[in-house]
## 1
Amino acid sequence: TENLLAVHVKEVNTLKEELQFARRKSWESRAAVEQERSRSSEQAMQINALKQQLTDLHKERVHSNETENLLAVHVKEVNTLKEELQFARRKSWESRAAVEQERSRSSEQAMQINALKQQLTDLHKERVHSNETENLLAV
């Protein structure tokens, strides 16, 4: 019986050691699982933060594209307005030149009119003088 008792004591001690080893491994596994869960949770937060950054960047890019498009439209409008202004200035100068030309022509015509009036006045005076001379001769 002592041999059997010694075998059972040895077997119980072995089982206790194995149980203690199994419990230690179980705790290590639980700690590892908890550590992985914690790391997984941190990674999930990082993923969400990165997704938010991507969303924000996408919104900024869309806004930037809209701004670029608006800017392009405004640049086009400004260029069109510059061309129209240049055209209007050219037409204004052409109109001023035409007015000057008309003034010059009008001035020349006024001088011609004055010259013709003077000729008419001179002819009229000559006719009056001629009539007076004829009347004197007739007397």
## 2
Amino acid sequence: AAMLTLLQFVCFDNIVLIYRPLVQGGDILLLLYFIALILVVGIVVMNLVTAVIVNSALEQTAQDKDLMKSLEEQRKKKILKDLRKMFIRLDDDGSGQLSRDEILTVSEADKEVLR
């Protein structure tokens, strides 16, 4: 019964049925106690809910940043690999450097890689 009463206070579910008979007895300390209890319990519960939501959002943001960083790194590795293959294909004389004539022979597929 005590846990049910506590749950009623946390949810503000018909708590008037609990505190009204006690407060109507005229004890000012009980009145102050229940006012403080209602204010504190409400604020604490809302702060806890807000903290859980904010913490969850921050964790999701961190995961999203890590995922984006990983995807960007994979994309850069693929581009670098494609560029190396393209420069090896274009280097007709095998010198390790591209001349103007070799650059001018770039195919349409290689031009797409550069875009």
